[in-house]
Structures are given as structure tokens and as C-alpha cells.
Hints:
By secondary structure, the protein is an alpha/beta fold. The protein is 45% helix and 22% strand. The strands form seven sheets. Strands 11, 14, 16, 17, 18, 20, 21 and 22 form an eight-stranded mixed β-sheet that branches. The radius of gyration is 26 Å and the shape is globular.
Amino acid sequence: MKGFFNYVLASMLGTFLVIIIIFLINLIIIIGLVSSFGSLSGKEIEIEKNSILHLDFKNVVADRSSAKPNFASFEIEKTLSLKSVTESIIKAKNDNRIKGIFLDLSVLQIGTASVEEIRNALKDFKSSNKFIIAHADFYTHKSYYLASVADKVYLTPEGVLQFTGLSAQIIFFKSLLEKIGVEPVIIRHGKFKSAVEPFMYDDISDANREQTARYVNSIWSTILQEIELARSIPTTILNNYADSLLIRNDKAALKYKLVDKLLYKDEVFDELTGLSGVETLNLVSLIDYFSSANDINDLIKSFETNIAVIYAEGSINSGKGSENEIGSETLSESIRQARQDSTVKAIVLRVNSPGGSSLASEVIWRECVLAKKEKPFFVSMGDVAASGGYYISCMADTIVAQQNTLTGSIGVFGLLFNTKKLMTDVGINVRAINSNTYSDIGNPAREMTAFEKNMIQLTVEDVYDTFITHVSEGRNLSKEKIDSIGQGRIWTGADAKKIGLVDVIGGLQTTIDLAAKKAKLTEYGIKTYPEKDKLTMIIEGLFSNTKSYIVKEALGETAYSYFLKIKELRKVNGIQARIPFYIDIE
């Protein structure tokens, strides 16, 4: 026994020392780079003539840019926002120093709707008659969809091009919970409200199968239509490729004209050198190009009139938020600041959220209503703006989404767990001393009575009624109509536009342009909220990155992604307006 405790203490001490070491190293990195804040990239950038803009997406592209210490590489890892990526492509179109774009797509960490936004910017770039060359060792559906816009699409010999059609993977936990003695207590409104189905069933319900098939096929249809236009291959033939698994290797991809050549990267570099008309290839990274085009003085330049862009990214919860989580207190404060700022003439709320707490959504919704009374208020939807994400969007003057945005999911649910059997099996007993009959309602150590379930069901119905009332008023549609297209059903942006949940198909810049037109602005600046300086972002990243690095190293990349999803369960308090937890479209 003594040896066991010595082992445990030694393990705890070792973990603690690793955390301290990582923290100190990251702190040293920060101190060393604080002085380099004169430019976004920390160095002077000069773009030479006949340069090629090198677009790779090894880092995640989120709605907001970030700067985090990277323990593995001992440097600050900077990422650009989606808006920065599209802006850079637009600027490169008219930049006579840039000859073309190289799409380096072996890794692509971007959502489907964000890919569409970047692809649209690349389509516009092509109108300049400059070239786009794409290359990858491995193409997923998303990366090939992006690559298909290029003049030439190349694949590494022996490389892979995935072309099997999209699949939504939904994980179910009912049998597991039964085996460990945990009973989920689920109260919901909406036959399509499938967020709780992983805890209710061992298989997908007919309603969930219907809605999932609808939005998966809608996204796939959009992808195929764009590939048909770009590659002149009819969608019927493309579907046959997928159904027959014809694209089984690199040679098949070439034979069936999905790629133009099989080339190693050095051969692609040789071709790029020839296209640029110089002896030495000059590739300019996206972050360097953006830095060169945006002098720090331009970034802090003040305007007499501005459009506020407020970022709402992540699950919605009460209290203060974080980089990857919407807090009702933080987001409400940002909306209030924009409303009260006399220089702000219009507001754009950029929503990229699967939803969350209905109460937190209501708090945010109220601030949106107040802002709309004073200023033009527009919503731009990202990869997902559903359930609570739609709740905070529904009252906007105009809602803009991409065709592949997942939205809607107008429904609510309550999720509790009865852990009595599990606790009994492991020898734990709980006794509640109540002042009143139902003081311990929701106590996981006992079974819920029928009366208690009914009371919670009534609460869920009340919240749902409030939800569809808000949507009805914001969309100027009857409650009956909203109820018929609600019921927790998820829609793509393309389908949502047809039924009145979305007004315009487009991205963030489209939304900003519409807001500027509504406010009658010709020259304006952009104020982003929540407001953060780069040093604050790095210091926040120091703490979060240290913890995540240790956990990720221990679990591995795949297990870590599931860890993050399970971690979300801790935030499920009260009635929820949220889309399914575990859907992954590949």
C-alpha cells in the first residue's frame, strides 16, 4: 500500500512539474515576442514582383484571428480570421505583384460553409485572369470542393482523392448508460429535436433520419453543382463515381478527370516557377501577405463612422464567455457597447454556434432587440447558427447565410440523469432532507416522479412557445408557420432561405455591405467585439494552451476530440436550445 501511494504522489508531482515547465516556456515565448507587435507577423514584410500567394490551411480558420503559444514549436502560433483570408484573396486580385495563387490543400481545418466563403473569393479572383493551382497529397470532400475552383488540380502520385459522398456520423450512448446504471431523463419539444437522441435510443429515429438525410444531401448537391461548373462533369456522372467507388486511387482520379496531373510537390513548384516568370520561386504565405497589406497604423486608424462586427462563436452559456464559448454576459455587453457607441452606425452579429442555454440565449436576444431599435442590425451565419444560435439571430433586419450553413433547429429540451443504480452499485448512498415536497427535484440520486417530469415538460413547452414567438415576430411569419418548420428541425442555408428563415445567401462581407447600404455609409471603419488586444489574446492562450497540450498529448488527436464533446455535457444546465452534440460530416 505504501508503494502505491508513493507511485500516485510521484505521478501527481510529475504532472505538476510538466505543467509548470510548459507554462514557463510559453511565458518566455511571450516575453520574447511582445516587442515584435509592430506588425501582425512580427517582422517587416516586402512583397516582391512576380510573387505567388501561398494558401495553406494547416491552422484552423475561425471567425476571429488568434495568437497562442505553441509548446511543440516554441513560438507564437498566429492564425487569421476567415474575413482576413477572404480579404487577402480580394486584395491579391488587384495586386500587380501577385501572379497567382497556390492552393496547398493536404490539410484543411475549416467548416463547410467557411470553405464555400473562401471558394467564392477565389472564383472572384479568377476574373483577374491570374492563375490558381491546387495540389494535395490527400483530398477530402471539402478540400477537393475548394480545389475544384482552380485552373489546374494536381494530386501526388499514389495520393488519395476521397469521393464517396458525405456521411453524418451520429454516436449513441443508451446501451452504455444502461450498463453503468445511468438513466437519462429527457424532456423535449420537437419531433426533430435530436440533440438528446444519443441518450434515448440505440439507433436513429425516423424523424432524425429524415432531417439528417435532407441536410447531408443538400450540402452534397451544392458541392456537386459547383464541381460540375468548374470541371464540366455532370452531377449524374459525379454521383456515379461516388456510388460505384470508381475513384479508388490516384490513377482513377486522373482517368475520370477529377485531377489534371499526378505531380509531386517539387514538380508543382517547377510549374509555379515557370508561371511566375522568374528563376527563383517566391511563395508568400497568407499571414505575411495580410501583414504587408495591413500596416499596424491602418489597423488602429480611427473612423468617424463604423460598422460593428460582433463575433458570437461557440456554445451559448450564462456568464462570461471565452474564445470558443459564448457567454451571455460578455456578448450582451459587446452588443450594448456597439449600441451606445455614437460612431457605430450599423451592427453585424456574426453567429457561429450550435446553441446552448435557452436562458442565456434569451438574455442575448434582449440586447439584440434593443440594438435593432436604434441601429440597423444584421446577422451573418457561419458554419452553424442553429437552435440557440438561431434564437439570437431571429430578430435581425436581415439574416445572411451560406448555402451549406446549418441553421434552424427551433426546439428545446431538458436533460437530466438518474444515477441511483450506478451509485448503489459502487456503494454510495445519498439521503436528502427537504423543507418541501420537491425541494430536491432533479436530484440524480433518485428516480424522478411522473409529476416532476410533467412540471419540467410544461417548462419546456413554455420556453418553446417563447422561442417560436420571437422567431414569428422577427421573421414576420405566423407562429403556426414557425411551428411547422420548427420542431427542432435542422435546415441548410439554401433550404432555410426557401422557407423564410434566411433572407440572403452570402458571407460576412456580403452582410457588411448590406449593413453599410442600410446605414447609407460609403466610407467606414470596422470595429470588432469583444475587443481584445494581441497581448491579451496571447496571455489567455498561454493558460488554455498549456492545459489542452497536456490532455491532447495523453489522449491523442481523435480521443481528444471526443473528450471535448463529452466536456460539453458539464455545461448542460437548465432548458437547452442546442443541435445534436455528436454529428460529424465527412
